[in-house]
Amino acid sequence: MAKKKSTRRPPPELQPGPDGAIKSLMEVVSRLRAPDGCPWDREQDHQSLRWHAVEEVYELLDAIEAGDDHEMVEELGDLLLQIVFQCQLGKERGVFDLEEVTGRIVKKLIHRHPHVFADVDASNVDQVLTNWEKLKRAEKEGTRHERPSALDGIPRRLPALLRAEKLLKKARRAKLIEPAPARPLTKKKISETLFQLAESAQSQGWSAESLLREEVLRREKRLRKLESAAAKAQKDSPAPTAGK
């Protein structure tokens, strides 16, 4: 009996250069999503892949902290795959693709760095961050992503401690809280205290992560009220009269 001829297409060859490598990756992902592709890849959507992206970021962090260049290359590739896969899904839905994603970030970087690509002066990091926040707020003004509060823009899914740190930075920059006090505790003491608090919470059947998340939400709500009250007071205050 004659052997049945395979109808499978050969894998794409890796094209040379950075552009070629990206094109090869895009072709591989497209093939995985094709009718004759991989059943697992064909079942995925934006929602099902979202936590895979988070996991890849944490694995990249492990490689960076270990100073392992070989692992960094692998984990960066895994993270890049998540980006290309999401773009392939967007392309299939006719809403966005990798070209649009990369084009938008190029424009954003140029616009957010006027001290590099235009005539704005920014001689230190604080000035760069201040300009960045102003530009970001102006970009989103009038859109459904508008950020009227100085506290807007903190990802809801951030771990509680990271969210607390982000909230404190934004609140200090907006002068909603006082500058950080002098540090009376050593780094070692602070780290030990954080661990002991987590241990204490766990011993009582609580999640330290959940407790801190609830506290951050309470603090954020309080700071937003303070911000609104300050804005209202400024709006209601009489305008200064011109001198005679």
* Secondary-structure element pattern, one letter each: HHHHHHHHHH
Structural class category: mainly alpha
Q: N-to-C terminal Cα separation, in Å? A: 108 Å
Tell me the total number of β-strands.
0
The profile of the biggest β sheet is: none
Mean pLDDT: 90
**Considering the protein shown, what is the CATH homologous superfamily of the largest domain?**
MazG-like
CATH architecture name of the largest domain:
Orthogonal Bundle
CATH topology of the largest domain: Helix Hairpins
Number of helical segments? 10
Shape: globular
Tell me the number of structural domains: 3
Percent of residues in β-strands: under 5%
List the uncertain runs. none
